[in-house]
Amino acid sequence: MELNTSNSSWNISDDMNSSIISPLERKIKFYILVILQGPSLFCTLFILRYFRWRHLQTQIYGFLLIVNAVILGCELPITLSYLYEGSIYFESRCSAWITLNYSLFQLSIFLMTWISIQRYLFIYHEQFILRHMILFHYGPVIFFYLYCPLLYIGIVVLYKCQPIYDVNLYICGGPCYSLELSLGLFDWVGNGISMEMTTLIVNVIVTIRHFIQRYRMKRAIITADGRRQWNRSVKLAAQLIAIGMIYVVGWVPYSIIVLIQMFQSSQNLANILSRFFAYLPYFQALMLPFVAILFMPEIKERLFTLFMFPCINVKRRHQNQIHTIHNQINTTNVQSRTITHH
């Protein structure tokens, strides 16, 4: 395959920029996203309010949910405004929007990849990771939190290239550095696709290893301690696979189409990419807290109690009213009998 290059760039951005979605399509996307935003942001903040930060095996999910809360509370409103208005009106806003969008979503991808690797180590090499907590737990998280915003401030805001922004397009059509082959491939393949494929591969490995272990367990005598260890590893793996797969669904199709566009530009693929797949990462962010809370029984119970408490109060008030009416009727009957007797 040959790259569609011109002056060391490809024409993917030109293809994407040629697709401006209709007002009806924008409004449909707007209402779908805005309906999901409120419950998802509430669920994310509720989890963070009661999150068990001292539990090392799930602590990194808290770091991921913090990023998710910022996406839903800070970046998504900009996208919703664009979808509702059809434009962000001022080119001066484009660099800030792109930097925020790229930094948060890339940080989310990095954290999910590291969650997959770390969860694998917790399942199969727990003592090893506990002995190297700084290196394999806190160190990577701190690095990712610094690397992503600094990288995109550097290559979007400070990098010397001529931006070609269109305020009527999603993220203004993209940054100008993506038109340079080397820098564009470094970011998209090195930071994006490689991380997403690592997440997918680790999830596949964990799934296969669990099937193999399950087969061995059926043929061996398992102690009570061994069964507890197995149940624990199943829960850890199920949480990883469930959350990891929404990242795979949200990002892998989008990344594959972009990669194809880099080598063989297609107007049809560009239309599909800019109109549909570009918004899949938002649905991944919106679904994340609902999937995460399924594996947090204590927080799930608190949330259930929160929503059930008003219903319980209404039921109790209704029962009290019935008892009051019943007592009043009994009192009236007693008084009637007394009057009749006299």
TrEMBL record:
Q: List, alphabetically, the InterPro entries matched.
A: GPCR_Rhodpsn (IPR000276), GPCR_Rhodpsn_7TM (IPR017452)
Q: Which coarse location class describes where this protein primarily resides?
A: membrane
User: What is an example of a Pfam family matching this protein?
Assistant: 7tm_1
The keyword RNA-binding is assigned to this record: no
- UniProt keyword annotations, A-Z: Membrane, Transmembrane, Transmembrane helix
Membrane-crossing residue ranges in chain numbering: 28-48, 60-84, 104-122, 134-159, 188-212, 236-264, 276-296
Show the GO cellular component annotation of the record. Answer: membrane
Recorded GO MF terms: G protein-coupled receptor activity
Task: Say if the entry is tagged with keyword Membrane.
Answer: yes
Q: Where in the cell is it found?
A: Membrane
Residues of the G-protein coupled receptors family 1 profile domain: 39-292
Could you tell me what this protein is called?
Answer: G-protein coupled receptors family 1 profile domain-containing protein
Which species is listed as the source?
Rotaria sordida
